[in-house]
């Protein structure tokens, strides 16, 4: 890039947009970056106060911002994504399918630590739909060293920084516990809420079984559904710490690996997550806290998308939900466009 007098700019390529502002009429670029200046352009450029211009001067050690932006975008993208039109060294990363957004946070941090380039994204581990903007990228200066972009490739380990995991159609069952429901003393109001939640994803509903408060009966119901091909078992009722709440013990009694009983999330502290292994596959068994029945958003909304995308949930990730794990019960719920569930993995 070099600075030249406008009257000598004919034939040169602009390195920047030239903005024209006419009160009450227009405000915007009269010439775009990349425009080749013609003789007719000179009076216009002078009229907007451009006595000098910055024009592209090819240097084998430097990259134009748009060339560098392509490299940065390639480090971000993976299957199921597309890019916007390049503009001023900027490319947006756009979802080209529905799924769960995963972010390699270490790579993202490493690239953003290099300076002169940036990637800003939405939060990972949440669903995205086709057409959603995932991230915005930009090269900061008009030109950047090739070596700097090589360092970006190394920082991102070749990418990708972002992935979209597709949701899988899962055979799903509900086991509802509690003598009061089993004997018909009260109507089950938990099952319909859970059915509504899972209906947002591709599922095949195997059924709902009502069970009394005996641990052995709960365990049998869970294992029955797994034998029937269930790929996700959701248990409602009996999840607190009262002596007659037997669901946690029943889940553990199936032989499943319990990841956690309890999560630093409100609503949703009494969550239990376990994985039952069968034929080399891990089948999630989830003990749902009672708040799922009445609260608009809970820990279930944070965990369910990951289970539907076969994205293993770890104890450390659940523990990290403590920061951001408090739902503020806003008058108008804007989830997921809020802070709920935006934990930080340390």
From TrEMBL:
Pfam family membership, one? MoCF_biosynth
CDD domains in the record: MoeA_like
EC numbers listed for it are 2.10.1.1
Biochemical pathway: Cofactor biosynthesis; molybdopterin biosynthesis
**Which coenzymes or cofactors are required?**
Mg(2+)
Query: Which EC class does it fall in?
Result: transferase
Name this protein carries in UniProt: Molybdopterin molybdenumtransferase
Q: In which organism is this protein found? A: Fusicatenibacter faecihominis
């Amino acid at each position: 890039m070099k600075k030249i007098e406008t009257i000598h700019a004919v034939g040169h390529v602009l390195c920047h947009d030239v903005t024209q502002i006419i009160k009450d009429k227009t405000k915007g670029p009269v010439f775009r970056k990349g425009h080749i200046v013609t003789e007719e352009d000179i009076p216009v450029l002078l009229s907007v106060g451009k006595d000098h211009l910055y024009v592209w001067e090819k240097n084998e050690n430097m990259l134009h911002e748009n060339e560098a932006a392509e490299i940065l975008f390639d480090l971000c993208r993976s299957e199921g994504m597309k890019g916007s039109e390049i503009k001023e060294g900027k490319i947006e990363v756009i979802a080209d399918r529905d799924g769960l957004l995963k972010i390699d946070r270490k790579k993202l941090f490493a690239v953003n630590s290099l300076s002169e380039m940036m990637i800003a994204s939405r939060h990972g581990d949440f669903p995205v739909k086709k057409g959603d903007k995932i991230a915005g990228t930009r090269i900061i200066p008009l030109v950047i060293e090739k070596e700097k972009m090589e360092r970006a490739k190394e920082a991102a380990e070749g990418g990708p920084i972002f992935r979209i995991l597709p949701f899988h159609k899962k055979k799903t069952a509900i086991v509802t516990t509690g003598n009061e429901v089993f004997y018909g003393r009260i109507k089950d109001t938990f099952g319909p809420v859970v059915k509504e939640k899972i209906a947002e994803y591709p599922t095949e509903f195997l059924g709902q079984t009502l069970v009394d408060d005996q641990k052995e009966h709960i365990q049998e119901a869970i294992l029955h559904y797994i034998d029937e091909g269930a790929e996700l078992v959701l248990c409602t009722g009996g999840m607190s710490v009262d002596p007659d709440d037997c669901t946690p013990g029943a889940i553990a009694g199936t032989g499943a690996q319990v990841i956690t009983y309890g999560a630093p999330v409100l609503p949703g502290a009494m969550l239990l997550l376990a994985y039952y292994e069968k034929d080399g596959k891990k089948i999630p068994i989830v003990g749902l806290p009672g708040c799922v029945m009445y609260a608009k958003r809970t820990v279930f909304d944070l965990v369910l998308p990951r289970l539907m995308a076969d994205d293993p949930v770890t104890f450390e990730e659940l523990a990290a939900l403590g920061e951001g794990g408090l739902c503020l019960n806003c008058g108008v719920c804007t989830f997921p466009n809020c802070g709920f569930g935006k934990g930080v993995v340390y």
